[in-house]
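Review this fold:
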Amino acid sequence: MDYTPIKQWLKDNLTEERYLHSLGTAECAAELAEKYGLDRNKAYLTGLIHDCAKCLKNEKLLDILHKMDGIDEDELINPKTYHAPAGVPVAKKEFNITDEEILSAIRWHTLGKINMTDFEKIIFIADKIEPKTRTEDYVQPIRDALKEENGLNKALFICYKNTIKSLVDRNLRICPATINIYNELLSAL
Protein backbone atom coordinates (compact mmCIF):
# COMPACT_ATOMS: atom_id res chain seq x y z
CA MET A 1 0.00 0.00 0.00
CA ASP A 2 1.18 3.51 -0.77
CA TYR A 3 1.00 5.48 2.49
CA THR A 4 2.19 8.74 0.90
CA PRO A 5 -1.25 10.46 0.76
CA ILE A 6 -2.03 9.42 4.35
CA LYS A 7 1.34 10.65 5.58
CA GLN A 8 0.83 13.95 3.78
CA TRP A 9 -2.61 14.38 5.37
CA LEU A 10 -1.11 13.65 8.79
CA LYS A 11 1.75 16.12 8.19
CA ASP A 12 -0.82 18.76 7.26
CA ASN A 13 -3.14 18.08 10.22
CA LEU A 14 -0.90 17.08 13.13
CA THR A 15 1.94 18.77 14.96
CA GLU A 16 5.43 17.63 14.02
CA GLU A 17 5.80 15.72 17.28
CA ARG A 18 2.41 14.02 16.84
CA TYR A 19 3.34 13.09 13.28
CA LEU A 20 6.61 11.52 14.50
CA HIS A 21 4.64 9.71 17.22
CA SER A 22 2.27 8.36 14.56
CA LEU A 23 5.19 7.06 12.47
CA GLY A 24 6.71 5.45 15.56
CA THR A 25 3.41 3.87 16.55
CA ALA A 26 2.95 2.48 13.05
CA GLU A 27 6.42 0.90 13.04
CA CYS A 28 5.99 -0.49 16.55
CA ALA A 29 2.49 -1.83 15.79
CA ALA A 30 3.81 -3.61 12.70
CA GLU A 31 6.58 -5.25 14.75
CA LEU A 32 4.14 -6.36 17.44
CA ALA A 33 1.68 -7.68 14.86
CA GLU A 34 4.42 -9.78 13.30
CA LYS A 35 5.47 -11.09 16.71
CA TYR A 36 1.91 -12.10 17.59
CA GLY A 37 0.94 -13.49 14.17
CA LEU A 38 -1.35 -10.66 13.11
CA ASP A 39 -1.55 -8.61 9.92
CA ARG A 40 1.57 -6.44 9.83
CA ASN A 41 0.26 -4.07 7.14
CA LYS A 42 -3.07 -3.54 8.87
CA ALA A 43 -1.26 -2.83 12.15
CA TYR A 44 1.06 -0.34 10.42
CA LEU A 45 -1.89 1.50 8.86
CA THR A 46 -3.78 1.57 12.17
CA GLY A 47 -0.77 2.83 14.08
CA LEU A 48 -0.21 5.48 11.44
CA ILE A 49 -3.74 6.90 11.66
CA HIS A 50 -4.60 6.14 15.31
CA ASP A 51 -4.18 9.81 16.33
CA CYS A 52 -5.76 11.36 13.23
CA ALA A 53 -8.16 13.43 15.40
CA LYS A 54 -5.58 14.35 18.06
CA CYS A 55 -4.98 17.94 16.99
CA LEU A 56 -8.61 18.94 16.59
CA LYS A 57 -9.91 21.49 19.08
CA ASN A 58 -11.88 20.13 22.04
CA GLU A 59 -15.05 21.85 20.80
CA LYS A 60 -14.78 20.04 17.46
CA LEU A 61 -14.02 16.73 19.20
CA LEU A 62 -17.06 17.12 21.47
CA ASP A 63 -19.21 17.95 18.45
CA ILE A 64 -18.06 14.72 16.79
CA LEU A 65 -18.56 12.68 19.98
CA HIS A 66 -22.08 13.96 20.57
CA LYS A 67 -23.03 12.78 17.07
CA MET A 68 -21.69 9.27 17.70
CA ASP A 69 -23.58 6.32 19.14
CA GLY A 70 -22.18 4.45 22.12
CA ILE A 71 -20.19 7.21 23.80
CA ASP A 72 -20.39 6.70 27.55
CA GLU A 73 -20.40 9.73 29.86
CA ASP A 74 -17.34 8.30 31.63
CA GLU A 75 -15.41 8.74 28.39
CA LEU A 76 -15.94 12.48 28.63
CA ILE A 77 -14.05 12.77 31.93
CA ASN A 78 -10.73 13.72 30.33
CA PRO A 79 -10.45 15.82 27.15
CA LYS A 80 -7.08 14.17 26.37
CA THR A 81 -8.93 10.98 25.43
CA TYR A 82 -11.62 12.54 23.19
CA HIS A 83 -9.53 12.05 20.07
CA ALA A 84 -9.68 8.24 20.17
CA PRO A 85 -13.41 7.74 19.60
CA ALA A 86 -13.53 10.89 17.44
CA GLY A 87 -10.81 9.32 15.29
CA VAL A 88 -13.27 6.73 14.00
CA PRO A 89 -15.41 9.09 11.87
CA VAL A 90 -12.28 11.03 10.88
CA ALA A 91 -10.60 7.81 9.65
CA LYS A 92 -13.74 6.86 7.76
CA LYS A 93 -14.04 10.28 6.10
CA GLU A 94 -10.40 11.11 5.41
CA PHE A 95 -8.97 7.66 4.63
CA ASN A 96 -12.07 5.65 3.62
CA ILE A 97 -11.45 3.14 6.39
CA THR A 98 -14.26 0.62 6.71
CA ASP A 99 -12.39 -2.25 8.38
CA GLU A 100 -14.08 -2.70 11.77
CA GLU A 101 -10.91 -4.10 13.36
CA ILE A 102 -8.98 -0.96 12.45
CA LEU A 103 -11.79 1.34 13.56
CA SER A 104 -12.18 -0.47 16.88
CA ALA A 105 -8.45 -0.28 17.58
CA ILE A 106 -8.51 3.47 16.91
CA ARG A 107 -11.61 3.81 19.08
CA TRP A 108 -10.07 2.08 22.11
CA HIS A 109 -6.38 3.08 21.89
CA THR A 110 -6.55 5.48 24.87
CA LEU A 111 -9.04 4.15 27.41
CA GLY A 112 -9.17 0.56 26.26
CA LYS A 113 -12.01 -1.75 27.20
CA ILE A 114 -12.69 -5.06 28.87
CA ASN A 115 -11.80 -8.03 26.65
CA MET A 116 -9.77 -6.19 24.03
CA THR A 117 -8.70 -8.26 21.05
CA ASP A 118 -5.00 -8.91 20.50
CA PHE A 119 -5.09 -6.40 17.63
CA GLU A 120 -6.58 -3.72 19.90
CA LYS A 121 -3.98 -4.51 22.56
CA ILE A 122 -1.16 -4.19 20.02
CA ILE A 123 -2.29 -0.73 18.92
CA PHE A 124 -2.85 0.36 22.53
CA ILE A 125 0.64 -0.82 23.56
CA ALA A 126 2.40 0.48 20.42
CA ASP A 127 0.96 3.91 21.19
CA LYS A 128 2.63 3.79 24.60
CA ILE A 129 6.01 2.34 23.67
CA GLU A 130 6.93 3.73 20.27
CA PRO A 131 10.56 4.91 20.43
CA LYS A 132 10.35 8.21 18.54
CA THR A 133 8.66 10.27 21.29
CA ARG A 134 8.41 8.02 24.35
CA THR A 135 11.14 7.92 27.01
CA GLU A 136 13.25 4.81 27.49
CA ASP A 137 12.61 4.58 31.24
CA TYR A 138 8.84 4.44 30.60
CA VAL A 139 9.06 2.12 27.59
CA GLN A 140 11.53 -0.52 28.80
CA PRO A 141 9.46 -2.24 31.52
CA ILE A 142 6.58 -2.60 29.04
CA ARG A 143 8.91 -3.97 26.35
CA ASP A 144 10.39 -6.40 28.89
CA ALA A 145 6.89 -7.64 29.79
CA LEU A 146 6.19 -8.35 26.12
CA LYS A 147 9.02 -10.91 26.16
CA GLU A 148 7.33 -12.96 28.89
CA GLU A 149 4.64 -15.59 28.65
CA ASN A 150 1.25 -13.84 28.44
CA GLY A 151 3.26 -10.79 27.40
CA LEU A 152 0.47 -8.77 25.82
CA ASN A 153 -1.60 -8.86 29.00
CA LYS A 154 1.41 -8.20 31.22
CA ALA A 155 2.46 -5.21 29.09
CA LEU A 156 -1.10 -3.92 29.05
CA PHE A 157 -1.29 -4.25 32.83
CA ILE A 158 1.87 -2.15 33.24
CA CYS A 159 0.36 0.51 30.95
CA TYR A 160 -2.76 0.70 33.11
CA LYS A 161 -0.77 0.68 36.34
CA ASN A 162 1.36 3.58 35.07
CA THR A 163 -1.70 5.49 33.90
CA ILE A 164 -3.50 5.14 37.21
CA LYS A 165 -0.40 6.21 39.15
CA SER A 166 0.03 9.24 36.89
CA LEU A 167 -3.60 10.30 37.24
CA VAL A 168 -3.47 9.94 41.02
CA ASP A 169 -0.19 11.89 41.23
CA ARG A 170 -1.76 14.74 39.24
CA ASN A 171 -5.07 14.68 41.15
CA LEU A 172 -7.03 13.92 37.99
CA ARG A 173 -10.23 11.92 37.70
CA ILE A 174 -9.97 8.28 36.69
CA CYS A 175 -12.48 6.77 34.32
CA PRO A 176 -14.22 3.85 36.08
CA ALA A 177 -13.53 1.67 33.03
CA THR A 178 -9.79 2.14 33.64
CA ILE A 179 -10.13 0.67 37.12
CA ASN A 180 -12.29 -2.19 35.82
CA ILE A 181 -9.78 -3.04 33.09
CA TYR A 182 -6.90 -2.88 35.58
CA ASN A 183 -8.75 -5.29 37.89
CA GLU A 184 -9.55 -7.64 35.03
CA LEU A 185 -5.94 -7.71 33.86
CA LEU A 186 -4.68 -8.23 37.42
CA SER A 187 -6.90 -11.26 37.87
CA ALA A 188 -5.77 -12.69 34.50
CA LEU A 189 -2.02 -12.52 35.23
Remarks:
- The chain has a mean pLDDT of 96.
- Residues 94 and 150 are 36 Å apart (CA to CA).
- The two ends are 37 Å apart (CA to CA).
